[in-house]
Amino acid sequence: MLEGEPKNWDNSCCNGRIRSVDTTVNGRRATEGEIDPGAYTVPVGAEEHITITNGNLDAKHGRDAEYTTYGPGQSFVAPAHSLLWLRCGEPVSYQCVYFEADGQGGYGA
User: Fold this and answer.
1) What is the pLDDT of residues 6-32, one digit of tens each?
2) Which residues fall within 8 angstroms of residue 43, CB to CB, at 6 or more apart?
3) Distance of CA 2 to the CA centre of its chain
4) What residue spans define the domains of the chain?
5) Mapping DSSP to helix (H, G, I), strand (E, B) and coil, where does residue 84 land?
6) Tens digit of pLDDT for each residue in 85-108?
7) Which end of the chain, N or C, is more open, meaning fewer C-beta atoms within 10 Å of its C-beta?
8) Residue-by-residue DSSP string for 29-83
9) pTM of structure
10) Which strands form 47-54's sheet, in the order they lie side by side?
């Protein structure tokens, strides 16, 4: 999201502390959003390809896994049907592209 841009969020979770707007990237369903400072456990449906656009985010893909820190321009994949642990000490902006089970990743897939 651009600084000062009006924010009309389409989605939110974790009591509104993770928010996003719907978009598409190369014909695939995607979101662009923001994460408030804090620690979160988020369920993942479809496989998610997440790119950090601003700030630093710690993420891990399993309760016993080690956190990895991702900064602007860095990406990671959250496996389908899993839990994703996130934490950040500053606001983070991100883009998430969804890869649906049928491999198409489009709306209604």
Assistant:
1) 567 788 888 889 999 999 999 999 999
2) 82, 83, 84
3) 17
4) 11-99
5) strand
6) 999 999 999 999 999 765 444 433
7) C
8) EEEEEEE-SEEEEEEE-SEEEEEEEES-EEEESSTTSPPEEE-TT-EEEEPTTEE
9) 0.83
10) 11-13, 18-25, 28-35, 92-99, 47-54, 75-78
